[in-house]
Amino acid sequence: MGFFLLALVLFWMKTYIIYITEFSLGVSNMLQHFLLFINPLSSGLILLGFALFFKGKRFGIALLIIDTLLTLFMYANVVFYRDYGSFITIQVMMQTDNIGSIGNSFLGLAQWHDLLYALDLVILAVLFAKRKVHWSPARFSFKKPFAVLATGVLVFAANLGLAEIDRPQLLERVFDNNYIVKYLGLPSFAVLNTVQSVEVSAQRSMASSEDLTEVESYTDRKYAEPNAEYFGTAEGKNIIKIHLESLQSFVIDYELNGEEVTPFLNSLVNDESKNFTYFDNFFHQTEQGKTADAELLLDNSLYGLPQGSAFVTKGTNTYQALPAIMDQKQDYTSAVFHGDEGSFWNRDQIYKQFGIDEFYDDEYYDMSQENVINYGLKDKPFFEQSMPMLEDLAAQDDPFYAHMMTLTHHHPFVLDEGEASIEPAQTGNGTVDRYFQTARYMDESLEQFFEDLKEQGLYEDSVIMIYGDHNGISGNHNEAMSQIMGEEITPLKFADLQRVPFMIRVPGVEGQGTKHEFSSQVDVMPTMLHLLGIDSKDYIQFGTDMFSEEHKDFAAFRNGDFMTEDYSYVQEKFYNNETDEVIEEPTDEMKELRDQVHYELSLNDEVLNGDLLRFYEPTEDWEPVDPSDYQYGKSEEDDEENNDQ
Ligand code: GP9
Ligand code: MN
Fold first, then answer.
1. 274 CA distance to ligand 2 centroid (A)?
2. Strands 513-515 and 277-279
3. Has residue 106 got a pLDDT over 80?
4. Which of 133, 517, 524, 579 is 20 to 30 A from 44, comparing alpha carbons?
5. How many domains does the chain have?
6. Residue 52 sits in which domain range?
């Protein structure tokens, strides 16, 4: 038992040292640090504990073997991380190129001090060899190994419980592989990743090209013809797409204590000379994948999944995304700008499947303390520092498609002192009260960005599209929201609040003021394609062009609820929008639409789970996207430059 405990403590310390010296896990509070410290204990107890089932000398050998395997596993991750900045996953191992290249660069990545990671093994091996005569031949009584394993499981459960306090829904949503390692450790990450991969590959392998027939015939039927007036009006123009974090439409034109919350956005909506068309019945359709779901919807016209984030679990699927189509059809260069870690929501992987050329993540920004709050870069320095990169894109011959993703207006909606330019609301609910202050901050950052665009001559001839990604105020705050809205937040009212702003301006095209069509995030991609002069008919898409005469005027939520102009379906009840009353006897048409929405969502899930787009060839000249054509990260760029010199 002494030998076991020594091995355990050494393993624990070694793992902890590796965590803090080799990986940047973004530990941001004491609880996270405590969990990082404690998490090797449970894996040590459980994995090393298996050796206790062997008797006598074999116990020592088993312990040494398990410990060595664990060390090799850990060390492989250390080396991989030095090169890729991420952990080894099943997906990574499937891509043989990765393993091949890491093999070649192993010597460049290994360091002399790494030998220290084997020090505990050497100590144990020496002790084992020296003390061999003293090994008792008897097996441990069964109680002991079980007690050790049970302790390991208990420690793990406590660890997970505490992790869930800091990061609710950690396992369901898997925000970032880094998070799993930070909270639960590398072995747990490996197990979770394996379970997920097995599930994903089973679903994928059961799918065949025939499954696509039904999907295709559905999306064909839903297709809406382009509107000739707008078709092709954006072709060849730079496109700037602005993601407004957590912004809900109720804020537009809302006055708090007699003061506009988002005066700048309001001016775009209300000032006709600015030529924006604003959709005031536009809805988000996101679920647990939040921002990532919104991104998937907007660039693919696919919904996210009912659970988890498709960005993470379907990160290696085949996609026929807007950036890739724009590149192949019209030579666009695409870029995403976001002041957060590139691995969050698995962006640095899935963007390659979308054919996104450049990904400017936190590495490209000055992330000094004063520039950062909450998740990452504050919106004002974000837009400011993005300008030179945007200008570089503009200096190229090809047009660009730039996606600017804000971040400050994110739960828990905090600003540094002196940065709020509007008083908080007075509901007594901090989240709701502060929401208005960060919304105002984002609005100001946007105004400044527009100024800069104008100054650099990038405003006049660019398409500008602005959207809110999802709600920022969840159903937990209905009480406070009822004070803000001046009415009770019933399930129907809560559904109403899922509107997010969507507005677009195409140079040379007169804005249409405010349009009231019911539309949603899934409609954006076909709309964009038609503005570019590319017929969306060729692609598998669940949305329809918002400018089309045939646009389908309903907004489906990911949970199967939906809204139309006259009636809504919320929590299994139909409501009359005008009277707010339950429709006891829905018409056949209503029931048909409900069934259609459910069918559409199920087809969408078949596409994602079966990775069906790998069987689909949109046009004869379509080239499937090859993720290995894309490299992100400043270090990669520097390497390339060095090689060129
Ligand atoms: C993180 C940011 C926020 O990079 O996009 O994500 P969310 O929590 O809104 O999904
Ligand atoms: Mn978001």
1. 27
2. parallel
3. no
4. 133
5. 2
6. 2-204
